[in-house]
Amino acid sequence: GNSVTQMEGPVTLSEEAFLTINCTYTATGYPSLFWYVQYPGEGLQLLLKATKADDKGSNKGFEATYRKETTSFHLEKGSVQVSDSAVYFCALVPAGGGADGLTFGKGTHLIIQP
Amino acid sequence: SAVISQKPSRDICQRGTSLTIQCQVDSQVTMMFWYRQQPGQSLTLIATANQGSEATYESGFVIDKFPISRPNLTFSTLTVSNMSPEDSSIYLCSATGGTGGLIGYTFGSGTRLTVV
Lengths: 114, 116
Hints:
By secondary structure, chain A is mainly beta. Chain A contains no helices and twelve strands. In chain A, 0% of the residues lie in helices and 49% in strands. In chain A, strand 5 and strand 6 (44-50) form a beta hairpin. Chain B is built from no helices and eleven strands. In chain B, the strands form two sheets. In chain B, strands 2, 4, 5, 6, 9, 10 and 11 form a seven-stranded mixed beta sheet that branches. A four-stranded antiparallel beta sheet of chain B has the order 1-3-8-7, with no helix packed on it. In chain B, a hairpin with a 7-residue loop joins strand 9 (89-98) and strand 10 (106-107). Chain B is globular and about 40 Å long.
């Protein structure tokens, strides 16, 4: 079946540090890939997405590139801020899966210290 | 872009009772989904709410415990029945495939349920 694996957290960084959160997936074909963010006490917000190989999703300074050869969708940001502290979820929906819900990774708790 | 309103936002319920959670989208959508997020955990899909037919449940979830309605293309409800403390979670609805500018899968703000 489909699965998403994320690096374990919490990840603690200083402000302005470079961020990478690793995400790899298992799925047949070409799933669509997503990063969601959950701020404390809030619901999920879509951060970025990519629907085909070599696509780069970007938003709010975050980027992730769909790498079919390594089945990865790592999240990166060049300079993090305290306000980026949140839980980040990598997720996929199967190829052609318009009727399917998302499969989520376990989430990575990011803590940014001033 | 479309907005999903979910209510109640939180509730504290007695064991053995039931709670119905409502999810309203401000435009018509094809697919609606219900997820559970247990404390400190990721999201697990409960079921897909199909308009005009019964919901499709994932392994480990049954209709008697989590009855779902989808009377039209903008609304769905999830009922958590005969609750126990193990049902304490955040329940989220999600939608995709609509005319309201949905990008990816949009989520409601969630219902934080505590069963005592």
